[in-house]
Amino acid sequence: MKRPTKRGLILFTVIIAVCAGYVFANPLLRTDNYIRNRLLKATPLGTSMNDVKAFIESKGYTIVQYREDIGFRDPRGYKTGRTGVVGAKHIRASIGNYHHGPLRANVSVLWGFDQDSRLIDVAVWRTIDAL
Length: 131
Hints:
By secondary structure, this protein is an alpha+beta fold. The protein has one domain (31-130). The protein has helices at residues 6-25, 32-42, 49-59, 77-80; strands at 62-67, 72-73, 85-86, 89-100, 103-113, 119-130.
């Protein structure tokens, strides 16, 4: 068996460092809980629907739905057992896309509001499509 060379070990280390840097540099590759917690710091529970909309626009995210007549269907239901509709109103925004080989992923966020237009929950919804 051939012993790894110093040059090979350095190359391997550089490749691992680049891959790790890519994951840490792109927040969309972080876990759903990480993204949710970051967004809750920016838009805490109780934030008005108008302030959340202003935040979304300030970040350049794309508003996909703005509904004042119904909450959102909880995409976490299969993980948490929570099913049904969250809130009385909601905003859904696409916060970005990323690629993994032939797969394209979209990360969307759902902000749910009560009848008084105050934020009550945030959920991350990740979809993956083949090219």
